[in-house]
Amino acid sequence: MELTDKMQAFVMHCGEMGSRWGFNRTIGQMYALLLISEEPLSANELSQTLHISRGNVSMGIKELNSWQLIATRHKPGDRKEYYQPAGSIWQMANRVFEQRRKREIDPTLSLLRDNFLDEPRDQQERYAQQRLLEIHDLLEMITEWASELQRLSPEKLSTLMKLGAGVSKILDFRDKLSSKERGES
């Protein structure tokens, strides 16, 4: 597969972003290439296009499979496996979030919950435990909110996102009305 300059720039950028998404540069590049490829690609095509070893491609495929981001396809009369993104961009975003939640947020919540099993020994531990409880509650709220968002259809989620600034203005207006009702200026 021959990449244009713009396609190459996108693939390289996704490689750099990969570490921020939770996987390495090569896997980010592989996924980006699969995203912009009209046809499914074989491991050989991934290797040749990205100039990476077949071993790296094999490890990347395993990782992308573990994240449930790619689907394997077969072509009639061809023994090779071909790979393509599994689902829509919205589904990809949900899978990435879900995997990151499992790998990052859930262990943190578990550690925080374990911390609350013991009574604090002194004022310093009481203070620390209170701060940890605030972190726990915030992570729980974010997790619940994100789970609700994941249940929405892409159309409803898109509409909600477009309402974002408007909702903020409504809440600000509500706060101003509440302040006036309480006699605050």
TrEMBL record:
<protein>
    <recommendedName>
        <fullName>HTH-type transcriptional regulator</fullName>
    </recommendedName>
</protein>
<dbReference type="InterPro" id="IPR026282">
    <property type="entry name" value="MJ1563"/>
</dbReference>
<dbReference type="InterPro" id="IPR036390">
    <property type="entry name" value="WH_DNA-bd_sf"/>
</dbReference>
<keyword id="KW-0238">DNA-binding</keyword>
<dbReference type="Pfam" id="PF12802">
    <property type="entry name" value="MarR_2"/>
</dbReference>
<comment type="similarity">
    <text>Belongs to the GbsR family.</text>
</comment>
<dbReference type="InterPro" id="IPR011991">
    <property type="entry name" value="ArsR-like_HTH"/>
</dbReference>
<dbReference type="InterPro" id="IPR000835">
    <property type="entry name" value="HTH_MarR-typ"/>
</dbReference>
<keyword id="KW-0805">Transcription regulation</keyword>
<dbReference type="InterPro" id="IPR052362">
    <property type="entry name" value="HTH-GbsR_regulator"/>
</dbReference>
<dbReference type="InterPro" id="IPR036388">
    <property type="entry name" value="WH-like_DNA-bd_sf"/>
</dbReference>
<feature type="domain" description="HTH marR-type">
    <location>
        <begin position="22"/>
        <end position="80"/>
    </location>
</feature>
<keyword id="KW-0804">Transcription</keyword>
